[in-house]
Amino acid sequence: MWCRQWRGNSVPRVIGLCLVLGWGLTASAAEPRFRFTQQAESLLIELDGRAVARYVFRDPQIPRPYFDRVRTVSGIEVTRPNPPQEGVDPTDHVGLHTGLWLSFGDLNGHDYWRLKARTEHAGFVEDPVAVDGEGRYAIRNRYLSTRGDEVVCTEVCRYTVRTCEAGWLLAADSEFRPEGTDLVFGDQEELGWGVRVATPLVVDRGLGGRMFDSEGRRNGRQIWGQQVAWCDYAGPLEGRWVGLQVCAGRDNFHPSWAHARDYGFVALNPFARQAFTKQEPRKKVVPVGQTLSLRFGVVVHESETEAQFDLAQGGAEFEATARRETLFRSGEAGYHTFRIPALAVTPRGTVLAFCEGRKTSASDEGDIDLLLRRSLDGGRHWLPSQVVHEEGGGEKTTIGNPCVVVDRDTGVIWLTLCRNNRDVLLMSSRDDGATWTAPRDITSSVKDPSWGWFATGPGHGIQLAHGRHRGRLVIPCDCGFTPQLKNETQHSLVIYSDDHGATWKRGTPTEAAMDECQVAERDDGTLLLSLRNYRGKNLRAFATSADGGETWSSPAHHAQVSCPTCQAGLLGVGPASSRTLVYCGPAGPGRANLGLRLSRDGGVTWSENRLIQAGPSAYSDLCELPDGRLGIVLETGAAKAYERLDFVRVGPAWWNR
To answer: How far is residue 137's CA from residue 157's CA, in Å, rounded to a whole number?
Structure first.
């Protein structure tokens, strides 16, 4: 049988990690590692060399994907065998209750839950990768009509597995897209994220198994039909307390009702209002051209006693797991490539994600537009993209290098951008990015006439919170001292405004061989500049300013921050008096393995790399979301880093540890 392996702890992988330790990836022999082994019809998931689950993406007898053979970290199976063992396990719902699954009894009238219509695996969107105690992969499913002659919708699901305090967890982030006609989710019990537990855990067996939900209710009689954030089904097995904490994402369009049964089954369902409450039926309609995102997951836990498992902590671990979605995919919407992201959050909580839309090629120069997607709910859902600025129709006019800053005093959003990497333009919005002023050319105010290249950002600027320059708007930039672009004559600098964007000035450029940069304010009011540079060593350079960015210290490499020649993000989070600096960039080798590093001493020292995206990854930007999570937009892809722009949300329990 054909098979292949993606390993987090195989000999080839360990060798690879040893080779890149100088680039900052963490490699600890004691840290648990996932491994994926793909066979013709399934994907085996192992942790520390022990199988913990199997994802079956194609089964000749069961026409939908599912997980089975789910086990704890020590190998105790916590889902019912598939198929059930005759004389040992109850044999109801064979083929339907396969272990762990997401399915729907009514999608446009087609029944996938009861296997009357087929959910077809259409391939891996992202191959499985496993690094640093985490693993992830993405698949595409096609939901076929009952007759099999039409595609009702497509689903892209990104699965994440990671270790947690109680054992390990699985998070499933699905995006559903209608095909041809609107997608309608019906109102019935048999929809959602379901699990069938191992027979010894079943409440009805009387062996100590029990259910417990997020509101303190117990077992099926109390939990069935109630709205829950999670439901834990657990009990004693093989001398341990083990179970499955089934979770629904708080960002789903509606809270989930629990279809909980004492015979060993629970499903979380956000659709079935009438089925559970006897109110008027409600159908969830997803119009053509739009999508619906759903998040579910499960914490597979094991402890010596029931009291040792913290149910609230399990739910928090699930919520903190990185959630990602694609905002821009190259080749779509009439654009060849999307690159060069920038992020901002307005005082009203709207998230703005900018990028360049390159029409005819991936080149840095050509017919390039500046695009924007907005989220009105903190990055949970996104409006369609809009063109902020373009020039020349089909002419090769390059509009790009977005850098955005929000004036917290006035609420105005200021956006700097460039024309043909020479002219500096300024736009603004007073309605959270819905509309923008016509661009104003500020080149003569911020650029020396003898310079050639000039680029703002890319990324975000800041407004100073301390000292005599409090309120100053600061935009990081780079410039070329020669007419033609030459790495050795590139310099970094900032431009700034002390009158809320009315006028702008330039600061003194840094020493040579510096390029794209990002800036953050430290607790003492000084500024830290993070610099792409051409001085070798594959390390990030940093410089400081004590005068609000008007002058800079000599840039110096930091031995703890490995980075190829590439842009990288920098953000200060938390109270202005005790900021944590968050750096985001590829750790290498090359433009790959993008992660976060933290500094709690103003950039004097940095943590090890906390991996966000294994494999190809390049430019990125960061923001602090209204709910305290980090928002990260990054360039990534399967074969190269410029296939798509993903938006990732991670909770403090994940990144700030």
So the answer is: 8
Span of 345-354, 378-387, 541-550 with lowest mean pLDDT: 378-387
Mean pLDDT of the chain: 92
pLDDT tens profile 479-521:
999 988 888 899 999 999 999 999 999 999 999 999 999 999 9
Q: Which pLDDT belongs to residue 11?
A: 30
Listing DSSP states for 25-58 in one string gives ----TTS--EEEEE-SSEEEEEETTEEEEEEES-
What is the band of 5 on the pLDDT scale with cuts at 50, 70, 90?
A: very low
Relative to beta strand 630-636, strand 644-650 is antiparallel
Longest distance between any two alpha carbons in the chain, whole Å: 86
| Domain residue extents for the chain | 75-321, 325-655
- Going from the C-alpha of 592 to that of each of 135, 423, 595, the distances in angstroms are 16, 31, 9
CA distance 115 to 253: 26
The type of residue at 249 is: G
Q: Could you give the CA distance from residue 5 to residue 34 in angstroms, rounded to a whole number?
A: 11
- DSSP string over 428-454: EESSTTSS-PPPEE-HHHHS-TT---E
**pLDDT band at residue 654 under the 50/70/90 scheme:** confident
SS3 498: coil
Q: Are 350 and 411 in contact (CB under 8 A)?
A: no
Q: Cα separation of 416 and 123, whole Å?
A: 41
Cβ-contact 580, 572 below 8 angstroms:
yes
Nearest to 192 by CA among 150, 254, 142, 140: 254
Q: Say what the pTM is.
A: 0.84
How large is the average pLDDT for residues 550-570?
Answer: 97
pLDDT of the residue at 228: 98
SS (H, E, C) 624-648: ECCCCCEEEEEEECCCCCCCEEEEE
Q: How far apart are CA 419 and CA 455, in angstroms?
A: 9
In CATH, the number for domain 325-655 is: 2.120.10.10
- For residue 337, the tally of other CB atoms under 10 A from its CB is 24
Residue 578's pLDDT band, with cuts at 50, 70 and 90, is confident
What does the radius of gyration of the chain's CA atoms come to, in whole angstroms? Answer: 26
Q: Cα separation of 357 and 337, whole Å?
A: 6
Residue environment code for 522-544, b if the CB has 16+ CB neighbours within 10 A, otherwise e = bbebbbbbbbbbebeebbbbbbb
Matching residue, tokens 């499933």: 172
Please say if the pLDDT value at position 557 is more than 50: yes
- Model confidence at 12: pLDDT above 60: no
C-alpha to C-alpha distance for 393 and 395, rounded to whole angstroms: 6
Measured over the CA atoms of residue 356, residue 358, residue 362 and residue 367, the dihedral's sign is: negative
Return d(Cα 52, Cα 44) in angstroms, integer.
Answer: 8
Q: Which residue has the tokens 């953050």?
A: 520
Contacts of 43 (CB under 8 A, 6+ apart): 36, 37, 54, 55, 57, 128, 137
**Cα–Cα distance measured from residue 402 to residue 354, given in angstroms and rounded to the nearest whole number:** 7
Predicted confidence at residue 32, as pLDDT, reads 56
Task: Name the DSSP letter for residue 11.
Answer: H
Contacts of 60 (CB under 8 A, 6+ apart): none
For residues 458 and 567, is the Cβ–Cβ distance under 8 A? yes
Task: Give the integer Cα–Cα distance in Å for 266 and 202.
Answer: 11
Question: Sheet of 151-164: strands edge to edge?
Answer: 119-131, 134-144, 151-164, 167-178, 292-303, 240-248, 230-237, 210-213
